[in-house]
Write a structure and sequence with these properties.
Layout: H1 12-39, H2 44-69, H3 71-131, H4 133-138, H5 148-163, H6 171-189, E1 191-192, H7 195-200, E2 204-205
Antiparallel strand pairs: 1-2
Helix pairs in contact: 1-2, 1-3, 2-3, 3-6, 5-6
């Protein structure tokens, strides 16, 4: 029976390699267990079991076998494994928070890029009523801020413009409100988009109102 402080029958580099193995396995096992717990998906129990089992299957032999030859080595490796597991448990919420922030930032950037194109399209559609003399004559309500729908459109344009070019997640919803306000103003002004004219991007007057 070896004493607690008996010399280890293996080289220092072997002990260091075992230390790296138990630290990585214990830390990674706890990380994946907490990640699957945070995901809360249907396969949660199986995923958590296999994460824990895989970590234990690596850590246990790496600690027990050296302990049979040199108890102090097993004790050291066990302490390292426990410390790695505890550190991983405490550190993972911060990691998950940063990962979520990066994911949200990427999604917001993609959403804002698509909203930017829709914003330009909505502005171009509205500018016809301001710059085209024919449209100004046919749809005077589109330039009249006394009309409730036109006033709501102007407010929506200002709100979307304030958020344009930034990384604010509220930009895309603001553009959606602008598009809806533009459609409401056109409807109130008697604009009708038939199939051919819509393909060409040009509104036509509603015969019932013309």
């Amino acid at each position: 029976m070896p004493s607690l402080f008996a010399p280890a029958p293996f080289a220092l580099w072997q002990l260091l390699a075992l230390a790296v193995v138990v630290v990585c396995a214990a830390g990674a096992s706890v990380y994946w267990v907490r990640k699957h717990l945070a995901a809360d998906d249907d396969g949660l129990p199986d995923a958590v079991f296999w994460d824990g089992f895989a970590g234990l299957a690596i850590v246990a032999p790496a600690v027990i076998l050296p302990a049979l030859a040199a108890p102090w080595a097993g004790l050291l490796l066990g302490v390292l494994a426990a410390a790695a597991a505890a550190a991983s448990y405490l550190w993972t919420p911060t990691v998950f928070s940063k990962q979520e922030a990066r994911r949200f930032s990427r999604e917001t950037a993609a959403s804002n890029e698509a909203a930017e194109a829709r914003h330009r399209s909505a502005l171009a559609r509205w500018q016809r009523y301001e710059l085209d003399p024919g449209h100004c004559i046919d749809y005077p309500a589109m330039s009249d801020p006394r009309q409730p729908e036109t006033a709501a459109l102007i407010r929506a344009m200002k709100a979307a413009e304030r958020l344009r070019g930034g990384a604010d997640a509220s930009y895309a919803p603001a553009v959606a409100r602008l598009e809806q306000a533009l459609a409401d103003a056109e409807r109130a002004a008697g604009v009708r988009h038939d199939a051919p004219a819509r393909a060409a991007g040009s509104p036509t007057a509603d015969p019932a109102l013309g």
